[in-house]
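Task: fold both queries, return tokens.
Query 1:
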Amino acid sequence: MSHPYKGFEPKWFNQEFSKLSYRSIFKWGDPHQIKAPRESLYKLMKELFQLSDSDFKEYTENLGTDNVKFDIPSPITEEHLAYFRQICGDEFVRTDDYSRLSVAYGKTMYDIMRLRNQIVENLPDAVLYPDNKEQIEEIVAYCQQEKIPVYVYGGGSSVTRGVECVKGGISLDMRLRFNKVISFNEKDQTITVEAGMSGPNLEKNLNDAQKLFGAKRQYTCGHFPQSFEYSSVGGWVVTRGSGQNSTYYGGISDIVLAQEYATPVGTIKTDTYPRKACGPDLNQIMMGSEGTFGVLTHVTLKIFRYMPETIKRFSFMFPDWETGQAAAREIMQSEAGHPSVFRLSDPEETSLMLYLYGVMDSPLKNIFKIKGFKPGEMCLFLGYTNGEKGFSKNLAKHTKKVCRQFGGISLTGYVTKGWEKGRFNDPYMRDTMQDFGIVMDTMECTVNWSNMSKVHAEVRKYCKSRPNTICMTHMSHVYPQGANLYWIFITIMHDPEEFRAYHAGILDAIQKSGASMSHHHGIGKMFAPWLEGFIGKNEYQVFLALKHHFDPDNIMNPGGTLGFDLPEDQKISKDKKLYE
């Protein structure tokens, strides 16, 4: 909860609700945890959205406390169910309403709004809970024989409609049983896990390596997406995800050493050598396939020494966005090493972050007036360094030196510590605010330094074309050649289809601005219409050839993921109008 309000405080929903309810599916994370905005942020939102306290006296949206119930019978045959029960066990093959809906949607606001409105569609016919890779291999082989569509549900944090069972079939829910450590190799600094392993479980195993595996020291994977607490290793891999510390540790495509898949044409297994020149890299070919080639079963990851005591935190305020960009580029191109967390917010995000992380409730707010920094122009930079003690200390010193050279005001590590406290629980605020009709969602893309300002301006222009809409942007996952731009938009909206149209418009603006369609969220079915237009027709034929090889009968995640089996008239090119 937030700090106590001095004035009127909305009745943020914080009650018990059924484990079989719609809310239990769409709510983020721990059912007993919520996050409400600070009073200063609440007042700011009222001003921005032209609302008053009276607009927050009653919930405007369905709270989703009804138990899941719908009249959509499962069409799967008893013969198929009997076979799957023979593999997984009777209790691990389910066709009840709740089980089917629990794996049907991810966590984009379009999914959440449909669940709130009890719009039930694109269900699997049955949900299976496998226990080992041999079971998965047998299931995939049987589904290939019987032409049964196969979908996979990891942590359920997809924001691209990546898990949606458009063609029915079965969904493999990896959370319950497929989440074990297969092997730990301290000499090679690797760990092999089942794809359903959650982020916290992975880190716990690595942090406790001395006790669990007899290791000499503690380790970390270094991969911490915002969805860390409720996403799976398999989900990270098949979407080519990146964590908030990726500027130092790398994205998941840098961390993965080997993979194993159950595909319709048999098992695909890569080796664990750190580098080789033996043709195209099969590891990179399989990553990002989003379940369209096969089911990821085992993953071998590089691991790193866990040294939280060497972290050096910093935060700075720059006078404007262009200056902040220039400083960020110098930090990344100066060859002094790369900070681990690296986040530069544009003016609108800076304004809200100052409220969200309590800066405007602290003496720091007076510094900006003294230094002549203007609200609506200044930009917040925060981060920290990791690594060996001397390296981390020297890199932090260098980073601070560059920031001062570009006119940055040091805010010490205070703001960074505030960000760390909320780095994984900000999504809880989405549910709290949406109970009152305020929706919040995110988009991201990759840019080069040379087109960053252009992309930022053009995408922001579209986002702000909707009246009374907050559009925040920050740079993160940064490289010597460019960065990820991450948009957070907040507006008032009630209709799922209205949201879908607005979301599509943002995707269209991203494509036409010249940025990549995704940096780390993946493509799924929601971004798929723009994919071929982004990478090119000839280039897309390579994807199709791989799909035809691994999955000749299109049983793996069918229905538009990565644009496969998407009708031509639904594809959107850079020179095509969105709804023509």
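Query 1 returned. Query 2:
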Amino acid sequence: MKAFFVTMLVCLGSLAAGAQVKVNPTNWWVGMKDPDVQLMLYAPGIGGSGTPQLAPYPGVTITGVHPVENPNYLFVDLHIASGAKPGVVHLSLGGKSVDWVLKQKDPRDGTSRIQGVTDKDFVYLLVPDRFANGDPSNDRVPGMRDSLPGRDRPNSRHGGDLKGVQEHLDYLQDMGVTTLWMTPVVENDMPHASYHGYAFTDQYQIDRRFGGNEAYASLSEALHKKGMKLIQDAVYNHIGSSHWTVVDQPMKDWLNQWPKYTNTNFNVVPIIDPYASAIDRKKTVDGWFTQSMPDLNQRNPYVRRYLTQYAIWATETFGVDGWRVDTWFYSDEDFLNQINAALVREFPRLTLFGEVWVSTVAEAAYFCENNLNLPYKPNLQGVVDFNVCFAMQEALRKDGNPEKLYSTLGQDFLYKDPTRNSIMLDNHDMDRIYGVTGGDLDKYKMGIAWLLTLRGIPELFYGTEILMRHMKSEGDGMLREDFPGGWAGDTVNKFTAAGRTASEQEAFTYIQTLARYRLHTSALTTGKLMQYLPEYGVYVYFRYDTHQTVMVAANTGDESRTLSMDRFSERTAGFTQGKDVFTGAALPLEGLKIGAHQTLVLELQP
């Protein structure tokens, strides 16, 4: 099986002495809904080595051969008819043959794998280099550009890997987590700071310092056996400057080119602004993130096909249940719709949500399925909901107020289905929420309660459960610190209760209790939301369906308040008390008091 997971390199004697051919995609499957696939062949001079011939293979035909500007590339179109069987396809080129494997699709697709991620789930986001080191033998990989880990250096590799993640799945499941999302695990063979994963150098190779393709497949299998799910983090907008298609570009317009280096303006407005200038829009979409992250040109049909086929390949190969796509609005809009449609066509239950880091709900809604009457009709299911995040953070700061959270949710009418948005308190690029609260454990709990009871798919950033609190101003490397206990020799192990302080254990238990309750509470996962205008810093809302009603009341102010239940009679009629989700105590609704910075989560009872 190991050969299945290595990039296909095949000797073609007539090209050049010892020439090796790289073939992407590395394999495919029979029975796919799209019967066509485009092979990208790469080797010195392969574009001038003649017309490839296909050995007889029932159901497989060559439908196109495309030499391009760079003679080291050749693109070959194959048609795989519905009756084709799994096996090895033989292409002859330059007097030698290329063997390319067709496999059978996994029969579990849509059942125990590739299930999609919904608001019934609870997502845990981690940076694999910083979570746990399960296999120290892959800390250094000879020949890779950044193979000297140093845990004393925040922006160096620290040695965390996929085996380390797999060894702690019980920890996640015990906490109530259903779904794992990791920052990109694809090869980043870059000279510096390659740990974060956002500068790909070979999409078809999981980074060997994380354990390679075998380790990723093993992790996915282990997740699905536990009834858990996997989200893969993707980047369509850019790749690493050391990517092999950048070092030797197939054609001039493989990348978005400028007369001189041009950065993106990092501004979404020129995309949605009806009055925007063409140059501002071009800089947003075609400008580069950094010089080390060249900008891909998705208007190029070969680039478009390359990215789309990889996404399909990875979904089927690893049983991916959902995709979170980085830097969403910096990519070509038509391409984004096309790749979404192609993925959902093959995998109807697959979940797709994009990182749309914007400051208003209207800007976010523009990029996903919405109720706006605009020329651009996006098919993205949901977004990473930064606006809800910002509103929660604002309310949780010192002297914060929940009115922005109320008004932000009040704009959900712009989305076709806001429950498909991913909500969070922070992530790998933002101040950690415990730091945002200034170390106020009560305010922290308030944020956790909102995260796990509001609409949408909740996501928790690793370490939040043990009160990690570094801020963006301290640097990304500090923000993404190691999880204590993930490395042999760590002086404390916070994967266990014995290794946590009293406050850390209190935080962990709070998340665990509410997350486990949420798993079996339909009102919180599929129920409706009704919210009430905050008064005196007290924000009250209800999640409800025909089976349950859950009341959430949060007092962001510095004084205790008594709630007037008459105001909430629309939702409290027929109920006299609420069962505290955390303590189990039955609290009378009449004269219900809520202390300063206190949060109540009550399941209402007659």
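Both queries returned. Flag for query 2: The CA atoms of residues 124 and 229 lie 10 Å apart.
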